Amino acid sequence: MKAAKIIGLGALLAVPGLSGASVCESGSIGVGPYISAAPLMDSSGSTRQRFKGGSLTAKCAFNDGFALSVGSFMAENNSSNSSLHGIDVAVLTGHNLASEGFTSQMGASLIYSWNNPDSGSNLSYPTVALVSGLGYNWKNIGLMFSVDIPVYMERKYLRRVEADYARLHYPLAGRATVSFRF
Question: Chain-centre distance of CA 92, in angstroms?
Answer without folding.
Answer: 11
